[in-house]
Specification:
6-stranded antiparallel β-sheet, RmlC-like_jellyroll, HTH-like, Arc Repressor Mutant, subunit A, 10 helices, 47% helix, alpha+beta, AraC-bd, Jelly Rolls
Length: 303
Amino acid sequence: MDTFRKYITPGTEADAKQPDWGISILNVGHYIHPAGKKYPDAVHPDAYFFDYSKGRVLSEYQLVYIASGTGTFEAEFIGKVDVQPGTIFFLYPGIWHRFKPDEKNGWSEYWVGFGGSYANHLMKQDCFSAEHPLIYMGFNAEFINIFIQLIDTIKFDGMGSNQLAGCLTIQLLGLVYASALLKLQSSSRKAQIINNIKYSIHENLNSDISPEKLAEKHNVSYAWFRKSFKEITGQSPGQYQLNLKIQKAAKMLLETDLGISDIAYQNGFESEYYFSRLFKSKMSLSPSRYRKEFLNRQVNNSI
């Protein structure tokens, strides 16, 4: 698709003839910024041009979709983040921001700037916030097609074009909203599966069930399970299982008279030596020293 950009001045005679539907389109564009060229290019109007070192503040909403290429984005509530193809970021009125493509890659961007009472209502929905302005959509043919219709509508500037453009922008926002909800549901589903697996680990702590068996039992691949488990808990499945065993063994050392070899065996460790080495690495004390210090504290407290 050819590059295109148009900036619409609210309150002009042509604009005044069209009824207010609560969402006004202020600018629309598609631009392919080549590698090695300074960003933004000089064609930006003064009100939109910005020096990257200083950033920019707008008085409108903008939806920006990076169709290809890579870059960075930074705003008032978030630090600098990498932007990959398929990323959408929102610019909010009165919120400082800056962004640019990587010099060696450039990028292709679609954008629409908008405002109005209904726009304010839409942008207050749960999935949209200035604190979390980036949403990853990936490649979406329907989304691109609507953007192309939006650009064509503004380009040919027929009767009711702003209202039609407003409807198309609402469709874009609806697709972004649906994409964000699906991502949340996916995350929720992922957390549910991992929580079920964590429960299985607790239930099978003595049997030393392998992570591979746990994944198979819950109908997920081991690669997905390992990655998702660490993402949610911050630990690998093996480390999580080991930490639980060490915690249980520590409790048994303090609450029972069982020998260390028996405690090691009951918690699925292959030998007393192996158990003692792992216990010391986690608790900074050997099992016998851990038990002795606890007993000494009890004696001292009773005096």
